[in-house]
């Protein structure tokens, strides 16, 4: 028996936006994201526009690292 194709609507209204409710350690999250990125899992693309909240000190370190990393050698 062939698999049935199911179609889901991708249209989301403002009421469908989920507020963050789960906390996860960065040490637990990074390996999962790295593996998904490395293997090009399509589900990761669904979340690329999501925002994350980080502490101000981590933000400062990331910003500094980013600007240092982009400088030509």
What portion of residues is helical? 25-40%
| Largest pleated sheet | none
| Parts with pLDDT < 50 across at least 5 consecutive residues | none
Termini separation: 59 Å
Mean pLDDT: 84
Number of strands: 0
Q: What features would you describe in this structure?
A:
The chain has a domain of 46 residues. It is extended and about 50 Å long. It has 73 residues and is mainly alpha-helical. It has 2 helices and no strands. It starts with 25 loop residues before the first helix and ends with a helix. It is 38% helix and 0% strand. The longest helix has 15 residues.
Kindly summarize this structure in a few lines.
By secondary structure, this protein is mostly helical. Helix content is 38%, strand content 0%. It has helices at 26-38, 56-70.
Strand-helix topology:
Elements: H1 26-38, H2 56-70
Name a few traits of the molecule.
73 residues; 0% strand; mainly alpha; extended
């Amino acid at each position: 028996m062939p698999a049935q194709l199911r179609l889901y609507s991708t249209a989301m209204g403002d009421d469908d936006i989920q507020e963050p409710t789960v906390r996860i350690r960065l040490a637990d999250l990074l390996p999962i994201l790295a593996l998904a990125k490395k293997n090009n899992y399509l589900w990761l693309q669904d979340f690329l526009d999501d925002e994350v909240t980080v502490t101000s000190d981590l933000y400062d370190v990331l910003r500094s690292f980013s600007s240092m990393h982009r400088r030509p050698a």
